[in-house]
Amino acid sequence: MSIYINESSGIDGLSTVGSADKPFQTASYALFAQSEGNSEPKLLVFKKEDNEYQEISASALKKAHKGAEGLKKKALKQKELDAKKQKQQAENAARQMAALDIKIEEDKSLPTAHRVKINKAPEFVGQRVKVYGWIHRLRNNKKLVFIVLRDGSGFLQAVLTGDLALAKQTQELTLESSVALYGKVNKVPEGKTAPGGIELAVDYYEIVSLAPAGDDSFTNKISEGADPSLLLEQRHLALRGETLSSIMKVRAGLMKAVRRVYDEEGLTEVTPPCMVQTQVEGGSTLFKLDYYGEEAFLTQSSQLYLETCLPALGDVYCVQESFRAEKSHTRRHLSEYTHIEAELCFLNFDEFLNHIERVLVKTIDYVLQDPVAGPLVKQLNPNFKAPTLPFKRLEYNDAIEWLKAHGIENEEGEEFKFGDDIAEAAERRMVDTMGVPILLTKFPVEIKSFYMPRCKDDPRVTESVDVLMPTVGEITGGSMRISSVDELLAGFKREKIDPKPYYWFIDQRIYGSVPHGGYGLGTERILAWLCDRYTVRDCSLYPRFTGRCKP
Ligand code: 4AD
């Protein structure tokens, strides 16, 4: 039998017969296609030079046989693969059918499950519990489904096995769905780790609300490391992430700690108003509002109100939002921030400074001792060093000399001189170089607020202080307060402020004036320092700054 081969007009395919009108393209394929036959075919190859078919040469035939063997093997392999695929498809279909039939039901013969929060679950090893939460992580190995459940108190690893894992409902679970898991709390085997050292062997679960899959799935809306402006747009979802939620827990720990310290220091908490008609820290950063037709502002600081509380309640403090229309975008300025402010009476400047450093050291100690916040600070900021007493004290004038000596320039790119504001960049370079907390004191009258008294030994400067911390710079600003009416009126005049709306504040200096002082702690700045965050925006629940007032 003769088989025809034509390299240029032939086709290697199942429909080719190998006749002179329908030749194969290659000798290998021709042999492969004829391999079922009994006799060896005669191969005729078209020679272009002679324009005719001639019998194949011995060497070409040998090569063709080799090629045909290769093609045979390849075809066999493909056949095997096809069969495997078919089997798998059949199995999947069977599993899906079976999954449809699986009913997720609680086995009533099991012990009643204790309702627990995740942070308490390690106390229930060996017992059956019920835990509500959100699916934080989900890994599906078909026969085993791993869930990391989050309930705000912690994270719990849970495993679903057997029919529970195979059920259609389980296969369709999604991240951020809310569920109630039932099961036995087990210690994780030696060498394995899980939050709290435990794992929940789930025997039953209920879906409270299923989160969407596909285009609207949680991971499509937000993913870690996404563009910061997108993360801010989706802040309500981003807050569910481990980092932001940890910072918010440290924040709660900080609030608790500072209230405990103020209680120990004998201060009373008050709640001054946010809607005011006076300024504290300069007109340029006031947020104006129409108050029933009268001009009013969102408070820049509760200081003036705290001062009025002294004769009524003694030393006081507040935790209140302050508002600043800061036009520039910086890593440490917000338009709204949580201001922890304190006001103390019958004390001198030195006692005042001692109080501030004591409050800061004790507060940080309490945060680190807190069973929730302490470990989170370690996690977020492993190198954090708690400050110790006493802080380095540096007068403004000496700071200017230090900046000059270190070649650090002012905002105008010139050598620092007395009277210059030490702006953010220079301040940070100074405190980062010194590497310790600094009480920077005695700022010139001209760069500070109207209410700050002059130092008796140098009337060019005030009894004022900024507390600077490495990595963030200023976290606290405060001062003693002018206690004489005349000096205060001169301050108003210097700052071109009409004293009329301040009649109540001036009265403070008329009805039993006393030496007093106070300060404000920037909550978000303390947190940025404590949690090692680049920006204070990470430390506010819903940060506000120019261009952002939502969500
Ligand atoms: O230094 P400041 O402006 O001081 C006052 O408002 C005083 N009246 C407080 C007082 O004596 N009761 O602000 C105090 C602190 C700063 O050290 C800083 O930590 C924080 O408040 N702060 C801000 N935090 C975030 N965003 C802003 N725009 C801030 N402005 C000040």
From TrEMBL:
Main location: cytoplasm
GO BP field: asparaginyl-tRNA aminoacylation
Main enzyme class: ligase
Catalytic reaction(s) noted: tRNA(Asn) + L-asparagine + ATP = L-asparaginyl-tRNA(Asn) + AMP + diphosphate + H(+)
Domain Aminoacyl-transfer RNA synthetases class-II family profile: 248-543
UniProt-listed CDD domains: AsnRS_cyto_like_N, AsxRS_core
Protein EC: 6.1.1.22
GO molecular function: asparagine-tRNA ligase activity; ATP binding; nucleic acid binding
Record's keyword terms, sorted: Aminoacyl-tRNA synthetase, ATP-binding, Coiled coil, Cytoplasm, Ligase, Nucleotide-binding, Protein biosynthesis
Subcellular location(s) per record: Cytoplasm
Chain segments annotated as coiled-coil in the UniProt record: 73-103
Cellular component per GO, a single term: cytoplasm
Family matches, as Gene3D superfamilies: asparaginyl-tRNA synthetase, N-terminal domain, Bira Bifunctional Protein, Domain 2, Nucleic acid-binding proteins
InterPro entries: Aa-tRNA-synt_II, aa-tRNA-synth_II, aa-tRNA-synth_II/BPL/LPL, Asn-tRNA-ligase, AsnRS_N, Asp/Asn-tRNA-synth_IIb, NA-bd_OB-fold, NA-bd_OB_tRNA
TM annotation in the entry: none
Domain of life: Eukaryota
Family per record: Belongs to the class-II aminoacyl-tRNA synthetase family.
NCBIfam families: asnS
Name assigned to this protein: asparagine--tRNA ligase
